Amino acid sequence: MLNFRKDSIFIILPIIFILLIGGALFWLKSGNDAETQSTEKSQSKSPNPFSNQIDPSNVSATTSSNTQFGSASQQDIEIDCQMNLDAGQRLIVNEQTKNCFEFFITQYGEKSIEQIKADFEKYIKANYQEPALSQILDLWTRYMDYREQLGNLQPPTSNANSAKYYREIYDKQQNLRETYFSREEIQGLFGEENLYHEYTLKRMEVMENKSLSEAEKAKQLKSLFDQLPDDWKENLEQMNKLEDLRSLTADLKARNASPQEIRQMRLNLVGAEATGRLEALDTQRGQWQQQVTSYLSERDTIMQSGLSDSAKTAAINDLKQQQFISEQDRLRLNTFETIHDQGGKLPFN
Questions:
Q1: Tens-place pLDDT, residues 59-115
Q2: How far is the first Cα of the chain from the last one, in angstroms, to the nearest whole number?
Q3: What are residue 111's DSSP bridge partners?
Q4: Residue 195: which of 238, 168, 218, 227 has the closest Cα?
Q5: How far is CA 2 from the centre of its chain?
Q6: Using only C-alpha atoms, what is the Rg of the chain?
Q7: Within 10 A of 5 (CB to CB), how many other CB atoms are there?
């Protein structure tokens, strides 16, 4: 099963992009909430490849009381700062490192930045020794500088709804990281986040590519999905493929595409089995649409007749009972009747 961290990170990309162009202090206060959610439970739910390299003396770092170092709202939350160390007691930079940093950063609002920095330094000195101690404090200082500068990035001038706009913001973010961190540190701190951002941006670029047919877009989207790590696919398969199906189907119907074109797009995107289920659903929807349309036409004839109001009501009730056997269908029909009487577009899709 996909763990909480990966599940949550799928939501934060647009949030991060928007927050990047805000003020630095606002970003520190708000942007970190989403980022912290994406990492705060990762190590407890995922196998840890460095678990045999953790210094036993540091285990207390995850269970220390928050009385001294946590904010008022975090008193019931354990400090999650179990850094990974190698056999030489040197820091291994990974998402757990960032998780620890973010725990302290999210106290902004209840504490000042200077207080947060002072608390972090006290906490690390109380729980880690050299050489890891100096490494952690050095990385923390650069991380804080990076986060503050992140809020000063200027928004692109391109269309804010385009893939180009988000790609430019992402590239600016990447360039900024390179000024503060080594390649190995970037991979450790932001590796999985970057993986999903790249995937999402490429999906947007495919969908905006006017030179591709819907079937070609579906094929490329499936190829992008197939390149993801296996443990990402279970969650993304339902969310993204449903979104892609809706978007590409709407595009095809907007230009009156043939059933064959719709079928080819579906085959490329979701395969033969799912395409068969979708076609069966199309048949059911078509039958429902024909049944509702026929009923409303006969209902209009009754409404426009010279019968009394009571006779009209009785005739319509009889018609409804005859054409819709189940109570569920009759309840569903009420919505269509209301919209029809108001002159609205019937919600068949």
A1: 334 444 444 555 454 555 567 688 899 999 999 999 999 989 998 998 888 889 999
A2: 32
A3: 108
A4: 227
A5: 13
A6: 28
A7: 21
Tokens of 159: 């269309």
Contacts of 154 (CB under 8 A, 6+ apart): 21
- The residue count of the chain comes to 349
Give the HSE-up count for residue 217: Cα atoms under 13 Å, Cβ half-sphere: 24
Cβ neighbours for 273, distance < 8 A, ≥ 6 positions apart: none
58 vs 86: CA distance, rounded Å? 12
- Residues 23 and 151: their CA atoms lie apart, in Å, by 5
Q: What are phi and psi of 76, to 5 degrees?
A: -95, 10
| Residue ranges with strand state E in the chain | 84-85, 91-92
- pTM for the complete prediction? 0.59
Token code pair at residue 277: 């289920």
**Residues 170-199: tens digit of each pLDDT:** 999 999 999 999 999 999 999 988 998 999
